[in-house]
Amino acid sequence: MQLTMIGTGYVGLVTGTCFAEFGHHVTCVDKDKSKIEQLCKGAIPIYEPGLDTLVAKNVREGRLQFTSNLEEAVAEAEAIFLAVGTPTSRRGDGYADLTYIYQASKEIAPHLKGYTVIIDKSTVPTGTASQVERIIKENNPTADFDVASNPEFLREGAAIADFMRPDRVVIGVETERAEETLRSIYQPLFLQETPIVKTDIKTAELTKYAANAFLAAKISFINEIALLCDTIGADVIALAKGIGMDGRIGSKFLHPGPGYGGSCFPKDTLALMRIAQEHGQNLRIVEATVEVNAAQKAKMVKKIRDAVGGSEAGKTIAVLGLTFKPETDDMRESSAVTILPALLEKGAKIKAHDPFGMEEAKKVMPPGIIYTENAYEACTDADAVILMTEWNQYRALDLNRLAGLMRNHVFIDLRNVYTPKTVKAAGFQYIGVGRS
What we know:
Elements: E1 2-6, H1 10-22, E2 25-29, H2 33-40, H3 51-60, E3 64-67, H4 70-75, E4 79-82, H5 99-108, E5 116-120, H6 128-139, E6 145-149, H7 159-164, E7 169-172, H8 176-185, E8 196-199, H9 201-232, H10 236-244, H11 265-278, H12 284-307, E9 316-320, H13 335-345, E10 349-353, H14 358-364, E11 370-371, H15 375-379, E12 384-387, H16 399-405, E13 410-413, H17 420-425, E14 429-431
Parallel strand pairs: 1-2, 1-4, 2-3, 4-5, 5-6, 7-8, 9-10, 9-12, 10-11, 12-13, 13-14
Helix pairs in contact: 1-3, 5-6, 9-11, 9-12, 11-12, 12-13
């Protein structure tokens, strides 16, 4: 099929590339001409393992192309995916900003030729599809089209595997023609018996928010339990294993840390709260999830401060990992963005390393952070080291070497990667989250 992807951000680029790998002919459109020029040259604007190789392969084989010519891309399309950003509103009220969705809908409308399915791939509040339909009809009353919802469930760092072997595909449709089109698009997944969950459009729109809110709630829950473990001297790792082996609970997302971040959980939990409030409902569990997450980051600042003697002023602190999770360069809502400025304000000197996130970090972090070539350089002459993001290359550090490089031996493991016994054997004071 001939598919057009509006937007070459994380979702648009990964989705478009994977559809091309399925055998479809995909045109990715973006207004940013410099980004399109870079993509045409093979430069990938995001870090996602394996994406550069997959893009190059499908461009070479003629199934994937990039353009800023919206008219041509839309006119040829049998289905158009809207994969533009829906960030939290600049008003700071938690609502999703749908400016880009509505703008894209208006701009594609005049160029529609023949029957076309317009598919919301972006995470959007319930009712967005009906607004997209209204905008297109206003700008092209004779257009033959349907609007559908097909939320994405991609994990940064594992997006290609998630797309190729998904737990499920959710399609929200109102007509048989739209359903047939979407089933044809996902036909390659039928061989592996991927479940296709067909719903009405509003249900599909809400499903993505509900899924992310539930996962965020699991994280906030285990973070609160970890704080209780800190207080009474229990071990949250053993506790999480004990409850996670219950099939009704599951072990995923029961990993305590400095709080969730990224492009989805923070904005989607806020947006879901606002959707509920607009309809006269309060989602108290989701509200508590958001509050606990914000408090967790603040409590990590206190944990670090206490670990270095009650004041970070004049202390050199090494930070390993800046992105919100491993295998991505995404700094959005990373715990480092909250924690490190608080330490800098109180006089800490920070030396940081991240395998892929340092260039993005420089754009969003305050000045004064020293970025280093590797973990050992960051730890040289440091009073404490913070393991902020659990990149693989930090999982087997030479602790004896670190001890020889550092001025004082404080190891703050905000991801509980190391066992306390191992770290203490190398001469460090160990501080974890919910274990000691």
